[in-house]
From TrEMBL:
PPR repeats lie at residues 246-280, 281-315, 316-350, 351-385, 386-420, 421-455. Transmembrane segments: none annotated. Belongs to the PPR family. P subfamily. The keyword Repeat applies. GO terms for molecular function: mRNA binding. InterPro entries: Mito_RNA-Proc/Resp, PPR_rpt, TPR-like_helical_dom_sf. The gene is LOC107409934. This is Pentatricopeptide repeat-containing protein At1g02420. Keywords: Repeat. Pfam families: PPR, PPR_2, PPR_3.
């Protein structure tokens, strides 16, 4: 259930003007027609800045009230998404989430809840995740969905054991409206993505008698295997249980054959798909392209891009990336660049994965200039780097002692909200400390803390030692206080059968 707007667009506009005196005076004394109402993007940016700059709960509430912005479900969804991708402070985000959710008659959307849980999980604040879920259950249990299960388990599985992840899964039995096969599938998908296929297989066999496996269950288990024997075994079990394979099922087998360089089996499987009137799709051909590259046939793989069109299937960015990867592996960068230009001419936009294929080559060849040029091209086209892009770049800058380039990358990360601050900062602080750039190191340290991310203890100790040598005692005290704000927040349930009363949710660290 979501809150329906109680005001018309005209009354909302009046409310916004009446609660913003400066805007009212502007309209009163300026000649001509009335100034336009603030755009939705302006409202999102306004609320985002309020949340990011608030120092306490009272300050946040007062600023939001005085802003005059109507906090609708759509706006809250967008603000939380902005917080997520800008790596803003998770505690400030939680304060905003709780404040908006506590308004009388208001109900958060599923998207808002899942985004908030992701933000908390990324910062390993698992205690707060369970508190939030219990509150959501009491207010509107239907807001907790299978996607919620997936979001929470994925963050837990990244840092905790398989046993602890499964225990967390069991907790959802008292949270979700229906603890069924869909939830089981969410757990299996988490195991495949964050742990290993072996872990997923073991969890499946341990729990399959409590949940009836369906097509999605087997498609999840078929994906990601490196061993064709394992994949074929699940394929047979699926048939024995009367579950009919679909195009996804066949694609999983084609993919495992291609990764194992068993191209003859892969082509036979494609023919079998056609015999059973299951049409191969872009994922099928992308696997074939990748497999041919592994087999050392990049030109033949490129021809697949043309051949697939004859079957009414057109390559997407992932298909082009697979072909580009082949040429990068073969160190034929001219052909790789040619394919990227072809992508653009076809109306496709290269993504971070596309650029990373080149960054990898440049990193291993120690080619600083081409890496920098490619990074600038990437930023100019509006494609934000991901963590892998940042790591290729920052490690190359560290290797060649290019402080200004490293600082430019960091400033872009802070301003545009991409990449992992934790991973990049370790390399950056090493470089800055080696070069004696303590002012910059302190600034980057504080920027990171303001975003809600804890610098590593190793980096902190190194900066602290250099500051002691420089007699910067006030700066040391300031940084020490900032580090003290972070505490251990990784925690999971003690038992498999626990009460949903918060007083019984005493959690133990991983």
């Amino acid at each position: 259930m979501t809150l329906k707007p109680l005001f018309s667009s005209q009354s909302l506009q009046f409310r916004y003007v009446s609660e913003n005196p400066s805007l009212f005076l502007y309209r009163l004394f300026c000649s001509g027609s009335s100034a336009p109402a603030p755009t939705p993007n302006d409202a999102v940016e306004t609320v985002f800045r309020i949340v990011s700059s608030s120092t306490c709960s009272k300050d946040l509430k007062q600023s939001l009230k005085s802003s005059g912005v109507f906090l609708s479900n759509d706006l809250i969804d967008k603000v939380l998404k902005r917080i997520r991708f800008s790596h803003a402070n998770p505690l400030q985000a939680l304060e905003f989430f709780n404040y908006t959710g506590n308004r009388k008659g208001f109900y958060h959307t599923e998207l808002s809840l899942d985004t908030m849980l992701y933000i908390l999980g990324r910062s390993r604040m698992f205690n707060k995740i369970w508190d939030l879920l219990i509150d959501a259950k009491h207010k509107d249990r239907n807001i907790i969905t299978t996607r919620t299960v997936m979001v929470v388990l994925a963050r837990i599985a990244k840092v905790c054991s398989v046993r602890q992840t499964v225990e967390s899964f069991r907790k959802f039995k008292k949270l979700v409206p229906e603890f069924d096969t869909n939830c089981f599938n969410a757990l299996l998908r988490t195991m495949c993505q964050e742990k290993s296929m072996t872990d997923a297989r073991n969890v499946y066999h341990n729990l399959k008698h409590k949940f009836r496996p369906n097509l999605q269950t087997f498609n999840i288990l078929l994906s990601g295997w490196k061993s064709s024997e394992e994949a074929e075994g699940f394929f047979e079990e699926m048939r024995e249980m009367g579950v009919k394979p679909d195009v996804v099922s066949y694609n999983c087998l084609v993919d495992v054959y291609c990764k194992g360089r068993e191209m003859e089996k892969a082509f036979k499987m494609v023919e079998k798909m056609r015999e059973e009137e299951i049409i191969p799709d872009v994922f099928t051909y992308t696997s074939i392209i990748g497999g041919l590259g592994l087999a050392g046939q990049p030109d033949k793989a490129r021809n697949v891009l043309k051949e697939m069109k004859e079957y009414g299937c057109y390559p997407d960015v992932a298909a082009y990336n697979a072909a580009i990867r082949n040429f990068c592996i073969a160190k034929r960068l001219g052909d790789a660049y040619s394919l990227m230009d072809e992508m653009v001419s076809k109306g496709l936009t290269p993504n971070a994965t596309t650029y990373n294929l080149f960054f990898r080559v440049f990193f291993w060849s120690n080619n600083l200039q081409n890496s920098w040029n490619l990074y600038r091209r990437m930023m100019d086209t509006g494609c934000l780097p991901n963590t892998q892009s940042c790591m290729f770049l920052i490690k190359l800058f560290r290797r060649q002692e290019k402080v200004e380039m490293a600082l430019q990358l960091w400033n872009d990360m802070v301003q545009k909200g991409f990449g992992s601050y934790i991973l990049v900062s370790d390399v950056l602080f090493d470089l800055l400390c080696d070069e004696g750039r303590l002012v910059e190191a302190e600034r980057c340290f504080l920027q990171m803390v303001e975003k809600g991310h804890k610098p590593s203890n190793v980096s902190f100790r190194r900066i602290k030692v250099l500051m002691e040598l420089a007699n910067k005692h006030e700066a040391i005290q300031n940084l020490s206080q900032k580090m003290a704000l972070f505490g251990t927040s990784i925690s999971l349930p003690e038992s498999r059968d626990i009460s949903m009363d918060k007083s019984h949710l005493d959690l133990v660290p991983c």
